Amino acid sequence: MKTKLLAFCAVALAVTGCHTPSMNTVENAQKSGQKTMVSDQRVITDSKLNKTVNIVGVNTAMTPGGVLKVQVELFNNTRSTKRFDYHFEWFDQSGMQVNGIMSAEQTDQVEGGESKFVAGIAPSTACKDFRLKLSEAP
Amino acid sequence: MKKIIILPLIAASAAFLTGCGTDAHYVQTGGRDSVVSLDHIDSQDFIQAAGDATGSLLASGVLDRVKNPPAILAMSRIVNNTGQQIDMDLLTKKIRVVLLQSGKAVTTTTFGLGGTAEDPLAKGIQQQNEFMNDQKPARLPDFTLSGKIIENASKAGDTRQNTYSFQLTLTDQQGLGVWEGEKEITKQGTRSSVGF
Predict the structure, then answer these.
(1) Which of the residues A32, A129, B27, B102 has the least number of beta carbons within 10 Å of its own beta carbon?
(2) Is the separation of the CB atoms in A74 and A118 below 8 Å?
C-alpha cells in the first residue's frame, strides 16, 4: 500500500512539478511597419545556448534623438524556459568602445517556443556600431 | 575505533575552515557576480535603472528641442519611498555622466532646490563674475529632473518579493512634464545570493 502511495506521489510530482509553459502566439499577417534588418556577424561558442536563445535577426532604427536603437529577436527552440544574461557594447566611428551604464548586464528569460526582442539604445550619437553578448544565466 | 571518530572530525573541520567562505576579490561592478540582495537596492539595480532612463531620455529627442543646445538640466527632488536610506547620486550621477558625454545636456551645479547650490564655490564665482563684468544673470535651466523611488514588498510562505520602481520626470520651463520614465526591478527569493 505504502509503495503504491509513494509511486502515485512521484507520478503526481512529475506531472505537475516539471511542467513548464510553452508559448502560442498570434499577430497581424499584413505588417504596417517595415523593419530595417542588418546583416549580422555571429560568433557562437555555446551551441546549447544558441538552441535555447537563438538569434533570429537584428534590426536597427534611428530614434528622434538621433541615437542608434538596436533590436535583436531571440527564439527559444526548446519547450523549457531559459534564463539568460545579455548586454550591448557600443563603438564609435573609430571603432573605440564607449563604456558606461548603457552597457550594463541585464537578465531576462524566454519561455519555451517563445520569440522575444531585446533592445539597446546607444549612449550617444557618436556610437555607430554595436555588439550584443549573450550568456547563460547562473 | 578512535580512528573512525577522529578522521571524519578532521575532514569536517577542514571543510568548515576552507569551504565556508571566499577570499576577498574584485568583481565587476554591476556584473553577474554581484551580490543580489532581496530587501535592498543593489548597485546593479541603480545601474540598470539609470541606464534605462538615460536611454529612453536620449531616444525621445526632448533634449534636442531647446533653442541653444546643449540643454541645461537642474536636479530637483527625488523622493525616497523605500525603507532604506539612499544617496540619490547613486542614480542621478550615472544619468548626468551619460547625458554630458552625449553632448545633449549639461547639468548646472549652481542652481539647486531651495536656492542651495551643489557647488557653493562655483556659485560664488558665477555671481562675482556677473557683478564684475556687469553681465546678465546666468541662463536658467531648460529642464529639471525629479522623481520617486517606490518599494513594494510581498511574501508567500518563505518566498519574499520586492519590486523597486524608479520613476523620473523631466519638466520644462513651462512646468510641463515633457518626458517620463519608469523602470521596475523585481527580486524574488528566500535569501540574498551571489550572482544574477
Answers:
(1) A32
(2) yes
Q: What is the pLDDT of residues B138-182, one digit of tens each?
A: 889 999 999 999 999 999 999 999 999 999 999 999 999 999 999
Judged by CB atoms closer than 8 Å, whether chains meet at B104 and A123 is answered as: no
Q: Which residues of B touch A118 (CB under 8 A)?
A: none
Which residue of B lies nearest to A102 if distances are taken between CA atoms?
B51
Within a domain: residue A72? yes
Q: How far apart (Å, rounded) are the C-alpha atoms in residues B116 and B104? A: 25
Number of domains in chain A: 1
Note whether A107 contacts B196, CB cutoff 8 Å: yes
Q: Which residues of B touch A (CB under 8 A)?
A: 30-32, 44, 47-48, 50-51, 54-64, 94, 97-98, 101-104, 195-196
Is A14 inside a domain boundary? no
Give me the interface pTM, i.e. the ipTM.
Answer: 0.81
Residue A109 is assigned to a structural domain of this protein: yes
- CATH number for the domain spanning A81: value is 2.60.40.3230
Distance CA A29, CA B159 (A): 42
Q: Quick check: B98 and A67 CB within 8 A?
A: no
What one-character-per-residue DSSP string does B156-179 give? ETTEEEEEEEEEEEEEETTS-EEE
User: Cβ A102–B54 below 8 Å, yes or no?
Assistant: yes
Is A104 within 8 Å of B44 when comparing Cβ atoms?
yes
Residues of A in contact with B61 (CB under 8 A): 63-66
Q: How does DSSP classify residue B114?
A: G
Q: Which band of pLDDT confidence, cut at 50, 70 and 90, is reported for residue A130?
A: very high
Tell me if A89 is assigned to some domain.
Answer: yes
